[in-house]
Design brief:
The protein has 153 residues and is mostly helical. It has five helices and no strands.
Length: 153
Amino acid sequence: MSEYKSAKDRYADAKSSAWAFLIIGCAGFLIATAALTGIIHIPLSQFSLVILDVIFIIFIGIAVLSFRHAVKLTGEVTDETDLDARIRRWASENLRPEDLMVDLDTDTTEEMKYFLISEMVRERLMRAFPEVDDAYAEEWTENFYNEIFYSES
C-alpha cells in the first residue's frame, strides 16, 4: 500500500474538516450564547457557558484556517494534474508493454514480472521527471502497471 496521498485527496480532507469545524463551531456558539443570554436553559454555570463559547470560537478559527489551507491546495491540485498529464504523455511514448517485457522469459512468475517491470518503470520515471517524489512515483508506477498489464487480461 502506498503512502502517497494526492493533492486532490488532501484538498478534499481540508475542505471537509473546515466545513465540520464551521458547522459545529457556529451551532455550538449559538447554543452557548443563547444559554448565556437566557433564551434557552442549559444546566451549566455562566463560567462553563463562557468557556464553551470560547471553545466554539476556536472551532470557527480552525475552520477559517482549514479553508485557507484548502485554497492553497487548489494550486497543488492543478500542478499535480498537469504533472500527471505530462507523465502519461511521456509514458505513452516511452513505456510500451512489449519493450518492458523484452528481458523476461516465459518461466518468470507473475509476482516477479510485477517487481521487475515496476522497478524498471519507476527508475525510468524518476530519470525523466526528477522533481517527482518517491511516494508519487511508487503510486504512479503501481497504477500504470495495473492499467497496462491487468487491463489486457
